[in-house]
Amino acid sequence: MKKESGARLLMLAMLAAGTPAAAEPPFELPEYMVYSPRVALQEPTGAFAMPVTALRYEPLVDVQARNLAEGQADIAIRGGIFENTGFRIGGAVLYDPQTGHYFADIPVAPAMISAPRILTGVGNVLAGFNANVGTIAYDWQRIRSHGELTLVAGQYDSLRGSLYQGVVSNASMAGGTLAADAEVSRSTSDGPVPFGDHRFQRYNVRLQLAGPTAQTDLFYGYQAKFFGWPNLYTPFGSDETENLETVLVALNHRSSRGADGWLEVGAFWRRNKDDYAFNRFAPLGSVHPYQHTTWTSGATFSGHDDLGAFLLGFNAEVLADNLKSTSLIYGRFHTRTYEKIGLTPERIWTLDARRRLTLRTGATCDNTNRDGSAVSPLVEIALDDAPSGGDSHRLFFSYAQSTQVPTYTALNSSPTAGLFRGNSNLGRSRSHDLELGCDGAQRVWQTHVAVFYRRDDQLVDWTFQRGVIARLADPVDISTAGAEAVVKWSMPRCEITLGYTFLHKNADYGAATVAGSFYALNFPKHRLTAAIVARPGGGFELRMDNQARIQEDNPLRTVGGNRAVISSLGLFYRPPHARDLALSLQVDNLWNSDFQAVPAVPAARRQVSAGLTDQW
């Protein structure tokens, strides 16, 4: 109760600080790198920034982290599990066929990509790949001549640094301008608990040809992460480690074709090497290591075109994967190809000078060479008010089906021995999503409200059964009812973003006697987020992210209870005589909450860091 009271008092104090002084002129701040517009803190405390960083307090996303979100984090949307959420950058649909635990291992600097778009329902069916609930989509940023250096030191011998440089040349080709950017980041720490250390590094380089209506990007990224944490994946009191190396190569081209038309073509190759140790001190050849390497490559083609009588959306994707593993050897296959096509005709009726009615319908077809194909219909009807003076409104109703196939950890783990028990007979899971929502913008306000109902058939969950000391891959039929709302208020001196999510579930595991669920039944019944940015003047800026949650009861959660208030706070100062320089002081887990985001996995402790950023 004292922690929650302290949180409320500090939030009120920050709101008061955001009230402008009548006599003081506003202080012009340089451009602040925004990785997500609905969170306050854009940089982490304990490691360098990754795409997952700005999702930690995102109102529409639940990040279930093991220590650092930048180390290992499961990304859940609307009560889904970590393997129900996909990622996309431009035309590249990023996917790890071994396990969804590595979906968020994206070796891309946030400075190179746009803020995330959280796609659900129809949007997820069209843009997502093998993800039944949601897709987090990014675009490639246009490069500008700009450089930035960040150096940070903190508790537990934590050190991190990042260097980014973008250059736009005077050379032109095919009506576009040539540009390039590069980034390097490193981070080390002894960790807030014994054997909770990490060593991270990332290298990025990108070439770009950008014109008035088109942009082509060629990207290479490498990321290496070693980190340890007790009970990282299992609840047996062991000091576990992960050693990951991820490489991504992507080629992307996007062009606009009139007011309602666009075309995007992408090709990509990803390799992820994983060396997992249940006991970091065990000799080689016993339970260490579990070694896995996955390769994924693919091409996508998507667009939207005005055909006169109606609009047409279309997409086609082809992917192939391959697994090499020392332990995932019990299934029926270790390679797989995927194909997906979709067509969505769209008709618009103009009702009056501002309002229009849009009907979008169609279907997607998913296929693999290891499973049968599946057709997923969709329909959406929306009433829009055309933007006028910054105001706009959209009311929509949609129904969408989606489908996905299991990853290799569920398919190829031993069914009778080991820490993780698989099932080679697992097949496609199917999801049915019904949604009613409203989006709006009016002067200083932005709003989003939606209610939804989703039924998942044969969802693959990881469960615990009494008498079996392992996690088991069990199919479950589960229904989820929920509501979500986001309200953002923006003024020159203050910005506040409030988010709320309500979830309720019913699950049927069939004949399985399940004592506990690590994922499908690990969700917040109520989750409230609050992002606050206050600019009191004089070059100072306060940024604070908060979440309060009431979690569904889970017998696997050992400490911390089901209620938590978790906050992160940052104080930034830009000297008036050197506005390209920023000094920072940040605190993560301000109230030192011990809430277990993943049952049986210890929470990270409070951590303080100080740093400087120089821009040019």
Tell me what the structure shows:
This protein has 616 residues and is mainly β. The protein has one domain: Maltoporin, Chain A (Beta Barrel). It has helices at 2-17, 122-127, 408-412, and strands at 62-66, 72-76, 85-89, 92-94, 117-120, 134-138, 146-154, 158-173, 176-189, 198-210, 214-230, 239-256, 262-277, 290-306, 311-325, 335-350, 355-368, 374-388, 391-404, 420-421, 429-442, 445-464, 471-490, 494-508, 516-517, 524-537, 540-551, 563-573, 581-588, 607-615. The strands form 3 sheets. It has a 22-stranded antiparallel β-barrel. A 4-stranded mixed beta sheet has the order 4-3-6-5. A two-stranded antiparallel sheet has the order 1-2. β14 and β15 form a beta hairpin. The longest helix is centred in the first third of the chain and has 16 residues, at 2-17. Residues 1-30 have low confidence and may be disordered.
Give the SSE map.
Blueprint: H1 2-17, E1 62-66, E2 72-76, E3 85-89, E4 92-94, E5 117-120, H2 122-127, E6 134-138, E7 146-154, E8 158-173, E9 176-189, E10 198-210, E11 214-230, E12 239-256, E13 262-277, E14 290-306, E15 311-325, E16 335-350, E17 355-368, E18 374-388, E19 391-404, H3 408-412, E20 420-421, E21 429-442, E22 445-464, E23 471-490, E24 494-508, E25 516-517, E26 524-537, E27 540-551, E28 563-573, E29 581-588, E30 607-615
Parallel strand pairs: 3-6, 20-23
Antiparallel strand pairs: 1-2, 3-4, 5-6, 7-8, 7-30, 8-9, 9-10, 10-11, 11-12, 12-13, 13-14, 14-15, 15-16, 16-17, 17-18, 18-19, 19-21, 21-22, 22-23, 22-25, 23-24, 24-26, 26-27, 27-28, 28-29, 29-30
